[in-house]
Amino acid sequence: MHAALPRITVIIPTYRRTDALRACLRSLTKLDYPRESFDVVVVDDGGDLPALDIKAEFQAPLNLSVLTQENAGPGAARNTAARAARGDYLAFIDDDCMAEVDWLKVHASAIAAHPHSLLGGRSRNHLADNVYSAASQHLIDCLYEYFACHESPAFFFATNNLVVPRQQFLELQGFDGELMRFASEDREFCARWSGRGQDMRFIPEAMVSHAHALTLRSFWEQHYAYGRGAYRLRLARLRRGQGPLRIEPVWFFINLFLYPLKRARGFAIVRLALLMLLTHVANLGGFLAEASAQGTAGRGSMGGSARLGAGDITMIPPPLSARIYQGLRRFVSHARLMPAVTAYEKAANWMRYGDPKFPRSIGIEVTTHCNRACSYCPQSVDKLQARHIDWEVYRLILERVSEMRWSGSLDFHFYNEPLLEENLESLVGMARATCPRVLPRIFTNGDLLTEKRLRSLAAAGVINFNVTRHPPYNEEWDRRMGSLAARYPHCLQWTCIEDWPLSNRAGLVKPRRVASLKAGCYMTSYSLPIDIDGRYLFCCCDYYRQHVLGNVREHGLVEAWNNPTYRAARLQVNAGNPSIDICRSCFGVNGGSRRNGAPLED
């Protein structure tokens, strides 16, 4: 009897979910399927899986293999496992799913009837008390129910319960792990499968339980990623000459919104309906954001080309919100837009990090050297010895930024001239590779900015050059910067320092026009400076590093930002009632800042 059963390899990609993986593997040990007829391959996608412990616990009962790879996404991890599989069929399940006892047995019966078909099973929500998990499962159930009744090219099976003949999977070259890294690799693969006229069968009796705990924030991020994946799926189809997927009729979307009426009662109906509506908003937001990223300049990474000005630089595009702002600035002044911009940024930070005042900018001091000594800069008072950032410190900074998936402006400046750093292109490129959500910006006096340097930095990933014109003025500088601004208007803007009131830098300098802080100061809530030694600073005006929130070797971004002492001080500064010395100096409450023995070489 066992000889007639197909040989199946169960594939599980995993990333930093060891406990969930153990639960999944325990469910597989209970399968009603002969042990000699299936094996299991786990792929650790660049996480911290204790492979030896997992193998010791499950290798015998499951014929388990554990593979590792650099982090490349779940699609690439599944492809790695498929190439190493020993079975004639591949059964994909996620690490946060648990298989029913008859899961493989049901699939094996379907294989016997349809040996060349792609088979998709059903999943059910294992976390009944989690409304966000329930809403995500309702969405999948609604889609499967719709596709069962209507022929649609968008028909797909999720990869948490999918079985496919191994040979046919490899012939199709598996999942598109590069293009579809964010999400929707299952949709893209199913589109290619059906595009070749191959059969797809829904097997509702093949059941897995899905234990994916979600919060409002992770619920939003999940469906936002689905929207990004949807746009990339569109690009993949266009690349194959298939044209974009047709949009389903309006009643399909209405049905998604009303679907909870069939499955819930009482107030749960309203709650689920609102969350289903939120999935549409998140999907649309992700779709438009990815369209923005790929449309103006990101096409370079998709096989197209995007140009900036007269050059041939592939530019990394601004986010959709920045493009909307730039469009509105044609009609509305910056001052009038600021309340709306601030409200948007606070809402975005609350959704992403649980703190509406989390910094939207991180400044990195890559060198202490500056070629000028302007009277309104502390470098004119206490010139610093030229130093350059240590690569290990810089790596740790990027690691801290990457581990929380922070997005915002990564600014290269802090009382210095960043273009004096010879390795700046490498530093920028490393930031973009490690932290793809950051937007690198250069703040410079422009003295060393040539077209060649601008193009090389833009190619490395700089999205914006903020150039400040300082006295003494000269015609050569004006001609050069005017030419660059005309040729590269999307990434370079320059202003004159005398056009703005300036800070007294904690009382160290006396600019001609001092900025008024009567209504409070928000620099401490907008930006988080990190100095050349990897220390988080309370404020960019802290020239002598007197107030340190922590350091990158010991503290993460959130931990440093929430330092209790400085969290309270930040609120006081916002309210115009500073308590710490450097802030009181800026506000003109007491005398200037002073050197206090802070460990800064000069």
What is this entry, summarized?
This protein is an alpha/beta fold.
Give the SSE layout.
Layout: E1 8-14, H1 18-29, E2 38-45, H2 51-62, E3 64-69, H3 74-84, E4 89-92, E5 97-99, H4 103-113, E6 118-125, H5 131-149, E7 162-165, H6 166-171, H7 185-195, E8 200-210, H8 216-239, H9 250-258, H10 260-263, H11 267-296, H12 320-328, H13 334-353, E9 361-364, H14 391-403, E10 408-412, H15 424-434, E11 438-444, H16 451-460, E12 464-469, H17 475-487, E13 492-496, H18 523-526, E14 527-530, E15 535-537, E16 548-551, H19 557-561, H20 564-574, H21 581-586
Parallel strand pairs: 1-2, 1-4, 2-3, 6-8, 9-10, 9-14, 10-11, 11-12, 12-13
Antiparallel strand pairs: 4-7, 5-8, 6-7, 15-16
Helix pairs in contact: 1-2, 5-11, 8-11, 14-15
Cα distance spanning the termini: 81 Å
Strand content: 5-15%
Helix-residue proportion: 40-55%
Count of distinct strands? 16
Provide the spatial order of strands within the biggest beta sheet: 3-2-1-4-7-6-8-5
Count up the helices.
21
Question: Can you offer a commentary on this structure?
Answer:
The protein is 42% helix and 15% strand. It is built from 21 helices and 16 strands. The chain has helices at 18-29, 51-62, 74-84, 103-113, 131-149, 166-171, 185-195, 216-239, 250-258, 260-263, 267-296, 320-328, 334-353, 391-403, 424-434, 451-460, 475-487, 523-526, 557-561, 564-574, 581-586; strands spanning 8-14, 38-45, 64-69, 89-92, 97-99, 118-125, 162-165, 200-210, 361-364, 408-412, 438-444, 464-469, 492-496, 527-530, 535-537, 548-551. Helix 8 packs across helix 11 and helix 14 packs parallel to helix 15 (424-434).
